[in-house]
Amino acid sequence: MKLKYISLFLLCISCNISSDNSISKNDLIDKFEGFWLGQSIANWTGIVTEMDKIGKDDSPFYSREDWGKLDQPNIWSETTHWGEINFKYASKDSVWGSDDDTDIEYMYQELILEHDNIILTPNQIKNGWLKHIKNDEENFLWVSNQKAFDLMKLGILPPETSSPKLNPFFEMIDAQLTTEIFGLFSPLYPDHALKISNLPIRTVARKDAAWISEFYVIMHSLAYSENFNDNYQNKIMWMAENSRKILPENSYASKMYDFVKRKYKNNTPWEEVRDSLNQRYQVDNMDGYDVNKTDKECGGCFAAGINFGASLISLFYGGGDYKETIKIATLCGWDSDNPASTWGGLLGFMYGKKKIVELFKVEMSNSYNIHRTRINFQNNGMDNFNSMANKSVQIFEKVINEEFNGSLKNNKFVFDKKQSKYSNELEL
């Protein structure tokens, strides 16, 4: 056993994209297209069950047997159903509509390109939000995002927009929806990803909510590793264990992680883990978790914490399988479209667009309408995944040129490797 861990440690102590620390530009475009497409599929699949099951009453959560059946009413309606719990996608001749799980990431990408600086300033973030977000009630913002937006309209700048004194929703899920992409701009060097995502995260989040968002950012930065080849399960666990290092030991986030991982290692069925997660945190308020007590509307159903626990269940039990991960995330409960979208984007990047399309064996739309939820973008809001991916690659190139002594040679990005505490040790 000790020998196994030593060999794994030696394997990962030099994790990089390839032996020469390079990646093909065409492959990278395919990966970023996979990110945007994978997010969109998972987002629209997860929406079907969003807020159907939040653990505040005695009604049972969904189980695997509910896949393919009609969903049940959510907290906003006693009668409305979205339809069948199944994968949703925009067909070839239709258009993907933006949603709050993709649209602010889209906005941040555009702001970075507009201002030509990787680290956005407080004023750039404020002005971007005020320019691209509707000023009316139906603006696809909720809880902390909405409060931060209201504060920006009063002239208050990030990070004060997430100050607990001004924003009572600072422990909600919002930052998790908006910042994962920053990890993809810093290949295998989470330290830089954390630097460029710091202010966007703290525009809406503090404490555990911020640390959880940083966990996701690190996961995305580590997604570039090729040392595990196609063993996605081992790769996912390696990424998660290293991302766990950002969570302070006394935080409820770290304790949630350890709780879910322990259950997973004991081969407990994922439905039982989800039920015990609800009991431990939503009912018994263990490990200092009491967010549900301060939220009178839905008992913390939008909280970063409980949704982080649910997301880990889908991540571990999904085992790096795109479809299985999204299925579990969709059925797990609470804000189901968020963890589904997060892992859909991550696995979409790891797989690449070509492999994602092959999984579903259907021709999907390449078009994306950002104006479904946001405003004031070019071309009346119409874009496509290839264009969005090329913009992502443009930022990637800027980062490696500035931070990694990088260059583009023979259609390959070549750059220096940097050591990080988030990519060395491994114990599966």
What does the model show?
The structure is a single chain. The protein is mainly alpha-helical. The protein has one domain: ADP-ribosylglycohydrolase fold, CATH 1.10.4080. It is built from 18 helices and 6 strands. The chain has helices at 2-12, 25-46, 103-115, 122-132, 143-153, 174-178, 181-184, 190-202, 207-222, 232-243, 252-265, 270-283, 291-294, 304-318, 322-332, 337-351, 353-360, 385-403; strands spanning 22-24, 96-97, 367-369, 382-384, 407-409, 412-414. The strands form 2 sheets. Strands 1-6-5 form a 3-stranded antiparallel β-sheet. A 3-stranded mixed β-sheet has the order 2-3-4. Strand 5 and strand 6 form a beta hairpin. Helix 11 runs parallel beside helix 14 (304-318). It is globular.
Task: List its salient traits.
428 residues; mainly alpha; ADP-ribosylglycohydrolase fold; three-stranded antiparallel β-sheet; three-stranded mixed β-sheet; 18 helices; 6 strands; 51% helix; globular
Give the terminus-to-terminus CA distance: 11 Å
The CATH architecture name reads: Orthogonal Bundle
Q: CATH homologous superfamily? A: ADP-ribosylation/Crystallin J1
- Described by the principal axes of the CA atoms, the overall outline is globular
Number of strands: 6
Estimated helix fraction: 40-55%
Amount of beta strand: under 5%
Radius of gyration: 20 Å
CATH topology: ADP-ribosylglycohydrolase fold
Helix vs. strand class: mainly alpha
Summarize model confidence as the mean pLDDT: 93
Sequence of secondary-structure elements: HEHEHHHHHHHHHHHHHHHEEHEE
Low-confidence stretches: 1-16
